[in-house]
Design brief:
350 residues; Oxoglu/Fe-dep_dioxygenase_dom; seven-stranded antiparallel beta sheet; four-stranded antiparallel beta sheet; single chain; alpha+beta; 8 helices
Length: 350
């Protein structure tokens, strides 16, 4: 198990500014090193998806160059937003900023975590305490947050959304939502959730994926609504494991769908669809190809936590599939460290 100690310096891989750039208009993730490389590697598929004229290509080129510049500034700008929010923002629900209490967590989740830390706990016993969505894909579901806590958190998130505070994008594919570390919810909410409750479960469920060595995370809330983001193309997460918890509100549609582990999106034929249930969380491997179907009606807010283990990712960056080229970063960075990792097995990449 990962243990608490002196503060650690986390890093990102230099590939963050060149790999896995999402082009929403063409539903494509690309590697970008310049115009000639883009034409050579993606010309045919871009033309097949509607990028046909010189104007189309130049527009795409400009968008990718802007995205690279945005990523280069990301850590510094995020730290500045966090500092301003900390000094100037007045929460509507100060109680959600208190250290995570058991009362915020579903009884089933508490029971599963308690079992996982008990002497003799094993995978078979844990599986009796949660829902196996897919044994082959190792996707699981269980209640995580109580309805009152989901409502309180949503009230706070909406209050922040309506404020004049600066807001960062949750990730490179979602445009609407909240980065929890900028809002000040990382230390009091997400870190204890990961350390005290999630890691005992993931150590049993995913021992080969670093489930017992989680030492950082990236947590954000995504929002889907009419006139805003409505769906999410298929992708992988920059994480060893992912927890996705539906917070509300009332909505139809928006189901998650899953393919294979590190499956090429173009090969996705018969995905597994999983409906959201408010308060319940879906656990899956970060490399499991997945996406979200279009929202039907209403608003959907989800808490997403990318769970990371430096002992795994220090060997191989999940985004570029190479040994990471480390760059110092703010906060948890992308979960890489310069320390020699302990020896653990990693997920097979095929």
């Amino acid at each position: 198990m990962a243990t608490a100690g002196a503060p650690r310096r986390f890093c990102r891989c230099a590939c963050f500014c060149s790999e896995n750039l999402y082009v929403a208009r063409y539903g494509l993730h690309v590697r970008f090193r310049g115009e000639q490389q883009l034409r050579r590697d993606y010309g045919p598929i871009l033309r097949s998806r509607g990028c046909v004229s010189p104007k189309d290509f130049q527009q795409l080129l400009g968008e990718l160059e802007q995205e690279v510049e945005r990523r280069q500034r990301l850590g510094q700008e995020s730290a500045a937003r966090k500092a301003l929010i900390s000094s100037s923002y007045h929460p509507a629900r100060p109680d959600v900023y208190n250290t995570l209490q058991d009362e915020a967590l579903a009884p089933e989740f508490l029971a599963a975590a308690e079992y996982s830390t008990s002497p003799g706990a094993d995978l078979e016993g844990l599986l009796q305490r949660l829902e196996t969505v897919s044994g082959a894909k190792r996707i699981y579901r269980l209640p995580v947050l109580t309805a009152p806590f989901c409502q309180a958190l949503l009230q706070e998130l909406e209050h922040f959304e309506q404020s004049d505070m600066p807001k960062g994008r949750p990730n490179t594919m979602n445009n609407y939502g909240v980065l929890l570390h900028e809002l000040g919810l990382d230390e009091q909410l997400v870190t204890p959730l990961r350390e005290r409750f999630l890691q005992p479960l993931t150590a049993l469920l995913y021992p080969d994926c670093g489930g017992g060595w989680l030492d950082s995370h990236r947590a954000f809330v995504v929002k889907y609504a009419p006139g805003q983001d409505r769906e999410l193309g298929c992708h992988y997460d920059n994480a060893e494991l992912t927890l996705n918890v539906a917070l509300g509100k009332a909505f139809t549609g928006g189901a998650l769908y899953f393919g294979g582990l590190f499956q090429a999106p173009s090969a996705l034929a018969r995905p597994l669809e999983v409906e959201h249930v408010v308060g319940q969380g879906i656990l899956h491997r970060g490399g499991q190809l997945h996406g979200a179907r279009p929202l039907g009606t209403g608003e959907r807010w989800n808490l997403v936590i990318w769970l990371r283990a430096s002992a795994v990712r220090n060997r191989l960056c999940p985004m570029c599939c190479r040994k990471p080229d480390l760059v110092d970063d703010e906060g948890f960075g992308d979960g890489f460290t310069r320390e020699e990792p302990p020896v653990v097995d990693v997920c097979a990449l095929t």
